[in-house]
Amino acid sequence: MISYEPFWERTKESGITTYALINEYHFSSSTIDRLRHNKPVNTTTLNDLCNIYQCPIEGIVKYIPDDAAAEEK
């Protein structure tokens, strides 16, 4: 499972809000919703987020093996 927990932590720390992502960086609200619910997003979106937050991919996503994800539920 891919988790966007690092993205939300980085958003909180940086002060770049979801409002700014939508209105200044032109992300769709559906993309923000997909991130909020750990649903798939395309690699272009991940690249754009890395550029905005000036971080490596690990600053946006975290991989959780499926068996560990099942244990967390």
UniProtKB/TrEMBL annotation:
A Pfam cross-reference name: HTH_26
Domain HTH cro/C1-type, chain residue ranges per copy: 8-66
Any one GO MF annotation of this record: DNA binding
Name the record gives this protein: Transcriptional regulator
Species this protein is from: Hornefia porci
